[in-house]
């Protein structure tokens, strides 16, 4: 979610689990005697010896904390949970000593990590796992206030620093918010907080985000992270929590997509949100007029459920759908249309054009005949992206967020990925993986970066948006972030 608005009528959260299995120490056999004999060493090539030597050195240096040693490059996967029929997608991180796992929304639309605190007495914190700083021996209190505002509410507390692990990676000094003030509806059980996956420039804490520390340190095989998100919104048997797909750090998972990844650079290298330029939208085969310049900028946001855009472009999308009408009252800014219409909307960001399935366009069924579409009209501040492209779009592609060169890529989902849609199953639980690589963030926490502050303030200056979010919260009584 972009800080300021939660646009998701149906927010859901799921728990994700780290891919890495925690290896229990092997118990030693009680009594076992064996004959030791010396074997002739197998001949190894110079290459084999060289790679063994490199790995050995890196392992020992990591173990004994040589600050200049580069951990072995690697990649890892975190299984996602799909909450409330595609309303939200969550994964898990493990924090502290001993590590405790928490479910967190995976949000490419913001850049802070925060968790509800065990000292939070507000109703929003009831029934969820909360972070108890006194039970982690490695926790350090930064004694700096932290707050972040989304359209659907806010979270506030203090900043702390601790070991944070995810997908087999570990950052030894990750700064995050420990929040004792959390607005109602911001967290849906079992979710305990949010992991921001956008750039440090928009972090309210000023701290380097977990992903950016890992990407910039060279810990990853490739400087990118990728998502495959499942679809359950057209599955009447969907339960609150369903398997949500796959989040991969440091690599793409080639079994989840086919063909090439179509990358488009972040315009002007403006690393804040994961920005893209909307180059074309079609609805029912007709091209929509897209303004140029800043009104074509879009944030690609896993933390937003639907797709918001400028009022005139959104109106034009619906003008091609017979009998579509602007919503009124609590549906102000949204559109309704006959559910029997199969809608085909495509979007492009400079390269290939990607189709949104009818199942995703049809965001809500209001009654037997009337549906609500997934595109809504959005008013953002001057420096904010005009479009927020959320899960409605992202469920239709394999999405890649590349650090260097800074770009977003999309690819066609594989048959294996598509086969996970609507398959009701038990969800992965938050687990603690074993960390393959430990990295230290070099950036220190400070107050909010000036650039971040200006972007967030401008986002907040869109009064229509917050009204919209309040309306949606009432209508769907779900979390909008
Ligand atoms: C950090 O210290 C401040 C006092 O400086 C205290 O109010 C706050 O509760 C502490 N936070 C945590 C998470 O321990
Ligand atoms: C949901 O939508 C997808 C994509 O349009 C379709 O393949 C699938 O059959 C639909 N599932 C149900 C249960 O309607
Ligand atoms: C790729 O994704 C599939 C499906 O989630 C998973 O089974 C597989 O382990 C993943 N591969 C890697 C290398 O992570
Ligand atoms: C959707 O519209 C695009 C653009 O006109 C078109 O190329 C595509 O074939 C359409 N898809 C379907 C399923 O009709």
Automatic annotation (TrEMBL):
Family matches, as InterPro entries: Aspartic_peptidase_A1 (IPR001461), Aspartic_peptidase_AS (IPR001969), Pepsin-like_dom (IPR034164), PEPTIDASE_A1 (IPR033121), Peptidase_aspartic_dom_sf (IPR021109)
Signal peptide, first to last residue: 1-23
CDD domains: pepsin_like
Organism: Lentinula lateritia
Keywords: Aspartyl protease, Hydrolase, Protease, Signal
Positions of the Peptidase A1 domain: 89-411
Protein name: Aspartic peptidase domain-containing protein
Family of the protein in this entry: Belongs to the peptidase A1 family.
């Amino acid at each position: 979610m972009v800080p300021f608005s939660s646009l998701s009528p149906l927010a859901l959260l799921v728990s994700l689990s780290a891919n890495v299995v925690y290896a229990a120490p092997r118990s030693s056999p009680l009594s076992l005697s064996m004959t030791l004999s010396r074997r002739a060493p197998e001949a190894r090539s110079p290459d084999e010896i060289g790679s063994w030597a490199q790995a050995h050195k890196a392992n020992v240096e990591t173990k004994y904390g040589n600050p200049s040693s580069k951990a072995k490059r690697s990649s890892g996967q975190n299984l996602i949970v799909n909450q409330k029929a595609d309303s939200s997608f969550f994964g898990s991180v493990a924090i502290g000593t001993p590590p405790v796992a928490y479910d967190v929304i995976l949000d490419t639309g913001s850049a802070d990590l925060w968790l509800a605190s065990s000292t939070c007495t507000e109703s929003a914190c009831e029934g969820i796992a909360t972070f108890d700083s006194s039970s982690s021996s490695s926790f350090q209190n930064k004694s700096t206030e932290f707050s972040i505002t989304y359209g659907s509410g806010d979270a506030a507390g203090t900043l702390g620093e601790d070991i944070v692990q995810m997908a087999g990676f570990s950052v030894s000094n990750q700064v995050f918010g420990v929040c004792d003030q959390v607005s109602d509806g911001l967290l849906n059980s079992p979710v305990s907080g949010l992991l921001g996956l956008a750039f440090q420039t928009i972090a309210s804490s000023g701290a380097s985000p977990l992903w950016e520390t890992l990407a910039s340190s060279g810990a990853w095989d490739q400087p990118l992270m990728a998502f495959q998100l499942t679809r359950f919104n057209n599955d009447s048997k969907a339960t609150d929590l369903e398997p949500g797909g796959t989040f991969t750090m440091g690599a793409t998972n080639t079994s989840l997509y086919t063909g090439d990844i179509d990358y488009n650079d972040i315009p002007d290298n403006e690393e804040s949100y994961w920005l893209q330029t909307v180059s074309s939208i079609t609805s029912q085969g007709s091209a929509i007029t897209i303004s140029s310049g800043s009104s074509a900028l879009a944030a690609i946001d896993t933390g937003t459920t639907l797709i918001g855009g400028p009022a005139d472009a959104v109106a034009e999308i619906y003008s091609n759908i017979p009998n579509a009408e602007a919503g009124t009252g609590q549906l102000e800014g949204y559109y309704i249309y006959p559910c029997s219409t199969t809608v085909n909307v495509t979007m492009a960001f400079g390269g290939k054009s990607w189709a949104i399935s009818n199942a995703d366009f049809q965001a809500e069924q209001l009654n037997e005949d009337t549906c609500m579409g997934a595109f809504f009209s959005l008013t953002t501040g001057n420096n904010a992206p005009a479009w927020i492209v959320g899960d409605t779009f992202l469920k239709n592609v394999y999405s890649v967020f590349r650090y260097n060169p800074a770009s977003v890529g999309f690819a066609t989902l594989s048959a294996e990925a598509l086969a996970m849609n609507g398959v009701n199953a038990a969800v992965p639980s938050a687990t603690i993986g074993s960390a393959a690589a430990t990295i230290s963030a070099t950036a220190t926490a400070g107050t909010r970066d000036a650039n971040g502050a200006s972007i967030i303030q401008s986002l907040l200056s869109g009064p229509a948006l917050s009204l919209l979010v309040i309306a949606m919260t009432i209508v769907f009584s779900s979390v909008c972030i």
